[in-house]
Amino acid sequence: MARISRSEKVPKPMQNIFNAIVALTDTFCATHLDEEYALLARQATAALCRQRPSPLVTGYVQTWACGIVYALGFVNFLFDKSQTPSMLAAELCAAFGISKSTGAAKSKVVRDALAMRQMDPQWYRPSKMEGNSLAWTIMLDGFIVDARSLPRDIQFAAYTKGLIPYLPERK
Description:
The protein contains 7 helices and 2 strands.
């Protein structure tokens, strides 16, 4: 699985588009979500800006902003009432002035472009990572195991290879 850069650096020609989208996502996340979503939205926007050609060069910035937050919401179960924060997809789209069908379609473009999937460790909220079983599952000697149950030296090797998000605390 290829790792997406967590950088917010973007090519100079894309800087204005990045700034316009991030202004919208930062405002939305501050009002309705949290700083973790805002950070992930900035990183996703930057990753899309770095693609060649960038899909962000066509379309409206508010549509892209909605699609990016919608995609991150999909990954992090934002639309599940049992989660905090949570909201309906229609509410998210309405806040950006976008129809639900347009928001869902743009979200699919974002998810495809960044190879996002539900519970994707690359796009999962850090505060929820401990409970994300996908982030800790590795293959060891032909067996699928939870890296948190392995000896520290194997955990360290998995971490240095980018297979797990961080070294878990010892229990």
